[in-house]
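Need tokens for this chain, all 149 residues.
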Amino acid sequence: MSDLLDATFHAVVYALVGGGLVVLALGVLDLLTPGRLGSHLRGDGTEGASAPSGSAGLVAAAWLVGTGAIVFTAIWTNGEASLGRALLWTIVFGIVGVLVNTVMLLAVDAVTPGRLGDIVCTPGAAVPLAYVTAAAALAVSGVVCASIA
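Here are the structure tokens for all 149 residues:
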């Protein structure tokens, strides 16, 4: 019974830390987009978002999946270590993932015409640049996962 309680406690702690890292990733993406990301996702008429932006949804989803993959990999590869060590790896690599995805977003912005944030937050269906940006986020997250393993 003690093993079950320990495992449950670890699961709750990992979930809270992982959830915090996912929220951090979304918060950083919100800072990188014009206006409030949530208004672009809802299309609620604020921040010039008259309709939901499929592009913003696609990029945000890629950031969340990428961050989740990093958190998963850090926990999976360090699960046998002490809780403190595994949490440290999870936090450090989660933050690294957010930082590297930020750099990648800025790099894509630098090599494409126009302002990426404005293009990606355009109301309506997802635009090709959003697919490129989402793929870059997932690719970078994959590299971070590989560096952990």
